Hints:
- The protein is about 10% helix and about 45% strand.
- The protein is mainly beta.
- The strands form two sheets. It has an eight-stranded mixed beta sheet with strand order 5-4-3-8-9-12-10-11, with no helix packed on it.
- The termini are far apart.
Amino acid sequence: xxATPRPATRLFVVVVFLSSAxxxxxxxxxxxxxxxxxxxxxxxxLEVTCSGEVLDADATLLTMALYxxxxxxxxxxxxxxxxxxxxxxxxxxxxxxxxxxxRRTQLKTLVQGVTHSTLIGYGCDVTSVRSGERAVTSAWRxxxxxxxxxxxxxxxxxxxxxxxxxVDLPKWSExxxxxxxxxxxxxxxxxxxxHPSSAIL
Length: 201
């Protein structure tokens, strides 16, 4: 009696699984959630914005947190668009909540008195979920520094494990953006912060 071709069936299943995994890993890691520009064309005041628009079109933004890299326990602002909740700890910070397209939600903060010798790092954690998948948290970082004189270009570099892309942006500053995606082990995330309204799912 001949055996049924079950090994071939198992091989087919493995190939489909690996292909699906590659599709997940090839998400938009090269993009950055950060944007930086002068506040109303004032070069000494910069507006730092973290936006969920970097997410895939079918993703739902659950929470977002903006913080200083040198003190990640101090959260500048958090937002939960599903609950229409916003929490800010700095005077010049704000939330822009978008619904039903939660990806357009933004966190903003103003940086004053930025000079060429000043280097300020900001981090932004964005937690999102796609239908049928576990929640994922991606973390971005940007270093903001002013310029002594306006340079020819403002170069923002996005770095991943495979590629580096340089983009010419407005002529006022210089900096580097490092994209560091990370994945949650559980479909939720908790931000611990020294203020009453930490974003807890």
